[in-house]
Write a structure and sequence with these properties.
This protein is mainly alpha-helical and 148 residues long. It has one domain. It has helices spanning 2-9, 15-42, 49-57, 63-69, 74-81, 86-109, 132-147, and strands at residues 119-123, 126-130. Helix 6 (86-109) packs across helix 7 (132-147).
Length: 148
Amino acid sequence: MRSAVSKLLSGKDYRDEVINAVSAEFFDFTLEFFRQIVDAKLHGRDIGMSWYRERFIDGDIAPDEAVIFAGLNRKTVTNIYGTSAREVMLDAARNNFTYLRGILVGLENDADNNLAVTITISHNDISVKLSLTESLIVINALATKKRK
């Protein structure tokens, strides 16, 4: 960010520096997110929707992150509820995750849906394959983080 400030002060275009910083933050977030999924599998945890909710929505997590993992962001919650208070953010995350989960379970149960989307995350000798529902929840969280 020093380079961005230096460019700003000298009247040069600094936007490339900001874009690069946002991309680096996003990739760090993504890799850490995937590491947590593989780590849970490594420790014998079922990494289904209940685990996802427990770890990324209801767990010991900052409200700003919980809403991202639930497919929302702070600004959206603030615009809807008029506040970004901790409990409001966490309630919004829980409610949106429940809503998304319902939609995704419906997609998985749809007999006419022949589409399969799976994400496989590998680290060393451990591979984790996510179901359609789990893959779409992960994609949604990553998309929310990127547009943040």
